[in-house]
Structures are given as C-alpha cells and as structure tokens.
Design a protein that fits this description.
204 residues; alpha/beta; Aminopeptidase; seven-stranded mixed beta sheet
Length: 204
C-alpha cells in the first residue's frame, strides 16, 4: 500500500531537491517515455528511460533521492498526479512507462492498453534474447484507463515492468545512489527498445 495516496499529500511531507527531484525534457516524436518511480523508488528505471528516450522522445522521471526509504515516495500509476508529469502525459500522443517489479528472474512484463505496440515490443525483445511476455498479473497489467500510461491523447499506452533480476544485470551496482555503471547488456536492451519504438508509430 502507498504511504501517500496523492502528490499533494506527498508534497506536504517531502521536499523537492532533498527527497525527490523531477527530470524532464521535450521531444519531437509525440511519445513520452516516463519513469514515475525512478531513483531509489524502483532503481534503474529512470536511467533506462533516459537512455531510451534520447533526444527524440519526451522524457519524464520522478526520482527518489533519499539516502534510504525511497519506497515511501511511490504513488501507484492509477493515481499518479504529479502536475508536471500529468501535463506532459496529456500533451503526448502516447506514453511508455517503465517500472521495476520484484521478480528475481530476468524478465520484462508488458502491459498497457496499446496492444499492437506492446506485442511488437515483446517480439523484438524476445528476438534480442530477452524474456518478455504479456503481463497477466492483476495490478501489473496496466489496463485501467486511469493508469498513467493510458492517459495520453490516444488513451492507450504501454507499461513495462522490468524485473529486479534483469535490472541487476543491466547495472554493475543497481543500488548505487550516484551514477550507476552500465553493463553491455544495458546497451543492448536500450538499443533494442529504442529501435523498436521507432517502428511502433502511434497507436490507433
């Protein structure tokens, strides 16, 4: 269960620049790559999102920077309401969100209401040697209309749940608080995902 149910409540108890920061930039593709639980909340997701977005796609990351206890900053995707993030989502044609799940095995669970792009991402990741599957777990499927990935202009996005097992293979030290050293597998994963997104176009 989340400690804070909404951002207004979080902001009353946590300080921007001390407990969390918000990273963002614009893009030209119409796609927003988003890590709503970056930094110490779901480690590695912000780094992956930043690299995947590059300069082509818009990027947003809500990043926990506490020394410990960043999990308290988690606001679930169906209620995520940080104002800048919500504004960027509304301007985007569609949204790809990156999350971290706790599975020990190296796997990517793909959800969201944009089925065709999600299936294409699954196929391309599998062809590159990654275990990627359509998510059937309640709470991780990303199908609710209020899920932040589904609030872009086309009301359908893609949600990736990247396991702890895989994230530990993408970084030399996943839980390092400063810049994390990236492994060759990180670059293969990011390159595959970035190339796939260029092929996806905009969901209908």
């Amino acid at each position: 269960m989340d400690h804070y149910h909404h951002f207004t409540q979080l902001r009353q108890h946590e300080t921007e620049g001390c407990d969390y920061i918000i990273l963002h930039r614009t893009g030209t593709s119409g796609l927003l790559v988003m890590a709503p639980h970056g930094g110490g909340i779901e480690p590695g997701t912000g780094d992956i999102g930043d690299a995947v977005a590059g300069q082509h796609h818009a990027f947003y990351c809500f990043k926990g920077i506490k020394k410990t206890g960043n999990r308290i900053l988690h606001i679930t995707s169906n209620r995520f309401d940080e104002p800048l993030g919500v504004a960027m989502v509304r301007e985007a044609s569609w949204v790809l969100t990156l999350h971290g799940c706790r599975d020990a095995s190296p796997v990517i669970w793909v959800g969201g209401r944009a089925m065709a792009p999600g299936d294409h991402i699954i196929d391309c990741l599998q062809q590159s040697g990654f275990r990627a599957h359509r998510c059937d777990r309640p709470g991780l499927r990303g199908l609710h209309p209020d899920n932040i990935c589904n609030r872009g202009r086309h009301k359908a996005g893609v949600q990736l749940e990247i396991s702890a097992g895989l994230r530990n293979m993408l970084f030399a030290d996943l839980h390092k608080r400063s810049i994390r050293a990236r492994t060759p597998l990180f670059h293969r994963f990011v390159d595959t995902l970035a190339k796939t997104l260029q092929e996806c176009g905009t969901p209908n």
